[in-house]
Amino acid sequence: MSDSEEHQFESKADAGASKTYPMQAGAIRKNGHIVIKNRPCKVVEVSTSKTGKHGHAKCHFVAIDIFNGKKLEDIVPSSHNCDVPHVDRTEYQLIDISEDGYVSLLTDNGNTKDDLKLPTDENILRQINEGFAEGKDLVLTVMSAMGEEQICALKDVGPR
Predict the structure, then answer these.
(1) Percent of the chain's residues with pLDDT above 70
(2) Distance CA 133, CA 160 (A)
(3) pLDDT at residue 157 above 80?
(4) Per-residue pLDDT averaged across 149-153, rounded?
(5) Are 39 and 79 contained in the same domain?
(6) 133 phi/psi in degrees, rounded to 5
(7) Torsion on CA atoms 91, 19, 84, 107, rounded to nearest 10
(8) How would you class 43 by CB atoms within 10 Å of its CB: exposed for 0-12, middle for 13-18, buried for 19 or more?
(9) Among 141, 122, 127, 129, which Cα is nearest to 99's?
(10) What CATH number corresponds to the domain at position 34?
(11) In the predicted model, what is the mean pLDDT of residues 114-130?
(12) 8 A C-beta contact, residue 152 and residue 140
């Protein structure tokens, strides 16, 4: 390799932090998070089988993708590690909704965030549109995991 080669690294100011962390399968509980088929999921059911003739107890996970709601399943030996996603929830104040379905949000430091689409969940979408049309101050909760973000909840903090 020569010094003339240029290397570019994509970062989101998280100091090289991983999108997931390892956790022993036997330690993952219901309502926790797990990565199944490279998707961040919330665990809705865990069952553990007894040790078989091949020596490992197995954990059977039933989980729901936190972004698209699809049900996924996985069976892992309880002594093995599973990936667990870093899931963050952040609240932003809604400033504007554009015609192409993107929202403009106010961050804590006073900047705007304009790269989020309106949610696909009909109930939340209706509440956001109605509240915005009525001129209410809405605070949207944005869930982020593994490089994806989605509006997952909202609350009304009163009229403007």
Answers:
(1) 87
(2) 12
(3) no
(4) 91
(5) yes
(6) -65, -35
(7) 0
(8) buried
(9) 129
(10) 2.30.30.30
(11) 89
(12) no
In which domain, by residue range, is 27 found?
Answer: 20-85
CB 46 within 8 A of CB 58: no
For residue 11, the model assigns a pLDDT of 42
Instruction: Decide if 62 contacts 43 (C-beta within 8 A).
Output: yes
Q: What's the pLDDT at 84?
A: 94
Sequence-ordered list of residues with C-beta below 8 angstroms from that of 153, at least 6 positions apart, any chain: 124, 140, 141
Task: Report which of residues 56 and 30 the model is more confident about.
Answer: 30
In whole angstroms, what is the distance from residue 25 CA to residue 74 CA?
11
Q: Which residue, chain included where needed, has tokens 């240029």?
A: 6
Say yes or no: 80 and 120 in one domain.
no
Q: Is residue 63 part of a domain?
A: yes
Contact 151, 118 (CB under 8 A): yes
